[in-house]
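Preliminary data (for renewal application), adenosine-5'-triphosphate complex.
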Amino acid sequence: MSDVTNNTTESESSDQRTDFIREIVIADNKSNKWDGRVITRFPPEPNGYLHIGHAKSICLNFGIAQQFGGKCNLRFDDTNPTKEEEEYVQSIIQDVKWLGWDWEDRLYFASDYFQQMYDWAVELIKQGKAYVCDLAGDQVSLYRGSFTQPGKDSPWRNRTVEENLDLFNRMKNGEFPDGSRTLRAKIDMASPNLNMRDPVMYRIMHATHHRTGDKWCIYPMYDWAHGLEDSIEKITHSICTLEFENHRPLYDWFLDQLGIYHPQQIEFARLNLTYTVMSKRKLLQLVQEKLVSNWDDPRMPTISGMRRRGYSPESIRYFAKKIGINKFNSTVDFALLEHCVREVLNKTSPRIMAVLKPLKVVITNYPEAQVEELDAVNNPEDASAGSRKVPFSKTLYIEQDDFMENPPKKFYRLSPGKEVRLRYAYFITCNEVIKDSAGNITELRCTYDPATRGGDAPDGRSPKATLHWVAADTALKAQVNLYDHLFTKENPEEAEEGKTFKDAISTDSLKVLENCFVEPSVKTAPALTRYQFERLGYFCIDPDSTSEKLVFNRTVTLKDTWTKLQKKQ
Ligand code: ATP
Ligand code: MG
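Predicted structure:
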């Protein structure tokens, strides 16, 4: 596994977790059902970027393989040429790798199995269990009936095997226009399970496929293809989300008719998160309508968005472990995800000082040209992280919020006549407030106590507040992007009448602060380096950041609302 630090959280120290799926695997291993084999797969359709819901499935499938000495394949379910693109394939490969998983040489594509699937379809036709149907799409639906009404047989249901073989072959050869015919399984139009009512196996689509080009103009439907793909790869535990539970009888039917290898399908509940939409269709809409900057916008629930936001792969795996696996759909609080991110970052990210809303401070009794290099601890949670030097000089910046001219009683930070500690530096006292003609505070004049170097006074006095700061001459100017939830509603999918999920998009999910300053130690750090800005939160360097224009993204604040919620209960 990549990117696992030595100081892991409880997340990965001993991975012997259990859940109902792992119990099935353990029982199967005990009974020798699969001869001790454990083979899972993650089967994305390359029609969008992966999101945090996919991460749950990835961690489950690869995690089980890892825990039980098995294997997990990465398989692209690329059966629909009109929605799929190579860009998505590449992004998915990158994201699964980044999450820390390895499929070794087992990168598969459903499109590589098209010929085999076609041959099996021919076999079903020969068995009299599939037929070519000339009903148009809307008629197929009409004939299917509903939950309360049985379906009606297609008028084409009783074609002879010869006629079906001939027509299916001609479908494949491109003799018929899109949508004019389908191949359907001949099962039972009165079945209480709608999926069993002669489902469509193949449709005609004269579309260029991202891998097979124009070789095919008939494409397999998901329900026909999916079980076959698992069978071809000799998957043992075919794990999918709950909505496929009532497709299972159909998958079983296909495999049984063909008499081929039969994996066991197991369903689990998909992940839903508050303040988030997870459907790829909706995420695509956000991108296409430019409601976000791209798939990797840090407000997106995509893996690439979370990476850009500064989430670490370890924290996403930790989150997947914490939420576990179950059989009932529910919605997870976004605060739990942030809690996991924070917990990992707290252990792993170096602290630096940055000032987001600068207020100039001049130390009147500090020598004009002097610069001192003061020792600062890199990570109090991790002694091995060591320390660094931070320059201190006559002109500094502190946060505007850390000063009040007329403070209320409980305001312990800087105000006229008050002494505070500057982190790793000195005690300072404010003596004078400078304002512009409009009355805005532009500068503070302070004095420092040279006896308090490093932040301790020999007489034992201790100010109530410790402020972060940067030295004006050496600090680097930076833009800082403050991100918040993309949606204002806990469940944006639940739109009121006449509205859509887009009506719940927040107008202040991004605040750009152009005039921030960070300490010079970050100068040569690579993109995506993660830091804790002392007292402010966790931030990472944006991939588009340059030495001319330094840009940080706020990953998460310091405040842990999840822990608070837990304490209340
Ligand atoms: P969408 O319905 O938004 O298009 P999908 O489920 O069809 O998403 P796939 O590419 O088919 O997307 O998903 C690949 C795998 O990821 C599937 O096995 C699916 O079960 C799993 N998956 C997708 N979304 C979630 C989720 N929210 N929680 C857990 N697993 C998920
Ligand atoms: Mg799907």
